[in-house]
Amino acid sequence: MIPVKDARERILERFLALPAERVDIFSALGRVLTEEVIAPFDIPPHDNSAMDGYAVRSADLHGASPETPVMLRVVEALPAGYVSAHTLQTGEAIRIMTGAPIPDGADAIIRVEDTQKDGERVAIFVERPPRFDLRSAGEDVRRGDVVLEKGRTLRPAEIGLLASLGRSFVSVHQRPRMAILATGDELVEVDAPLLPGKIINANSYSLAALTLECGAIPLMLDIARDTKADLEGKLAQAARADLILTSGGVSMGDFDFVKEMLQQSGSEMHFWQVCMKPGKPLAFGSIAGTPLVGLPGNPVSSMVSFEMFVRPALLKMMGHAQIFRTVVSAQLTSDYRKRDERKHFVRVVLCQQEGVNLATLTGEQGSGILSSMAKANGLAVIDESRQLVRTGETVPVMLLDSSLSMSAEREF
Ligand code: AMP
Ligand code: MG
Question: What is known about what this protein does (predicted)?
């Protein structure tokens, strides 16, 4: 049995970021840039109006007030998207909409609320300095600026920025292809009849969902039966994957052949068994050069092991710098006892009360109790050496929900 930290390091050291590919920006969400994006032009490309109102010469407005308005002649109405052919003269105004380019001769915008239309003329009630309510060319992005660096994760704002620069394609790290193979004679497919002695294959689906959540591509293989021949046949279908994920068959049972597959010639076994609960029977190796993580079969164990070892590896392959989940400190709301010397990952609901993080167990912690995983938004980590953690003691909690806001209980 090796410690969790060592297991994680030994897995991560075997993966590198995948090569680049060009993708359209519709497919780029969550991907990591392999290129520097440089602005080919200014954004905005021209000085334009920040308001719906009137383009004026600021010098015309000296002394303007509600009591002593300045009257200007309205010579044109300019929507966004059009350039005025007129050069504004003293005593003139152009009705202008937000985003329209500033006409020649104008140097300030008066918002419509500070005016009153009077036939062909407009009364202006305020004095304004030059460039008031005017958006300058290049105030967002300047031509030649490095707008996005290599390694940036593309979120919706970055995608919008790429579009505004005229970039419909970008270069990003490839998505890892992950073959997912459930093993077990007891397993039937999700929509097949549940015959006596059988259970439904849940793991392929939870693992595929976890894989998709990371941005990687799950390749679903058919269930492998607990024979070497069937396992071998199914594993042969995974040759094109960057990583093979199996569930089950790595424990001490008479029909646990995944482990044996890693011990055959042409395969490698880097380690087996990690000092954790759930998730002890984890095997890591390779088959015909493709890395294989053999996850335990119990539904919660396979998910927790994925969280600890597989998710960081997938994120590393996708080029992410931040590959680990956020860990916060929280007080346990009940005593927690354990007898073994393994690191425990305990399913909890994390919430904040009066500024204090509280972690409450979601119920039964058996490695087959998937419903208590479904209720959890975090895993509290109980150290190997501990046997009793008392109510109110502070423990690290790994957040499972990346959208989880720690201030959710507060008003803003
Ligand atoms: P194993 O490690 O193969 O002995 O599996 C451990 C436990 O997990 C057994 O009770 C299995 O029935 C259960 N199990 C294994 N694979 C799956 C799966 N794909 N979906 C749901 N339960 C599973
Ligand atoms: Mg099995």
Answer: Catalyzes the insertion of molybdate into adenylated molybdopterin with the concomitant release of AMP.
